[in-house]
Amino acid sequence: MHNIRLAPSLLSADFSHLAQAVAACEAGGADQLHIDVMDGHFVPPITFGIVVMEALRNITTLPLDVHLMVTNPDHQVELFADAGASWISVHAETTPHLHRTLSRIRARGCSPGIVLNPATPLELAMEGAEGADFILLMSVNPGYGGQAFIPSFFRRCERLRSWLDSNGLQHVRIEVDGGVKIDNVVDVVRAGADTIVSGSGLMHGDIAANIQDMRTSITRAVSS
Length: 224
Ligand code: DX5
Ligand code: ZN
Hints:
By secondary structure, the protein is α/β, with parallel strands linked by helices. The chain has helices at 18-28, 50-59, 77-82, 98-107, 123-128, 152-166, 185-190, 207-223, and strands at 5-8, 33-38, 64-69, 87-91, 111-116, 134-138, 173-177, 195-198.
């Protein structure tokens, strides 16, 4: 079993005090920062690009986990890698040449990941999984923080974990993104997720304490 990694999403941070949010994530023991890049085409909102990435890279040593919600990820992967990404994931719905895109991410020294929307068949990720270090299963339709968790995630995650394990791909992680909070994180981990994105569930009040509380819940559950 993989160690559990916590990836707070900066999407729900106070952007007028972004550096403080990053510092609080570090203080709380986050394993990486989840960076939601939206282009106004694949999803309606536009968030931020490499200028903000470079600024983040300058203020933290945490790995930057870039989730590309863009229609042409092939135009972006090298730019984000050079701006300091450690993980880069692309939606299978957006790239017709998945193996090539994943190879380009790896060639730039980053960990490649495949993202699936909640209604996208798991087979799309299975076909590309040999070239990936992680598969990101969306548990909401992407585009916004604060949406309700879609429960089909559980059966999808269990099936994917079991398929990866029985096909020599035990090393491939499963990341979950959308609607994960302290009250459902244990179920999500029990279904096989090992990398937990949480935005609105963590980025309010005392962010460091929220991260520590989530870690404590997970640690208690996996050791019991
Ligand atoms: C949604 C993004 C998520 C978002 C999650 O499209 O991919 O990373 O920040 O936010 P919560 O945890 O609030 O659902
Ligand atoms: Zn995301």
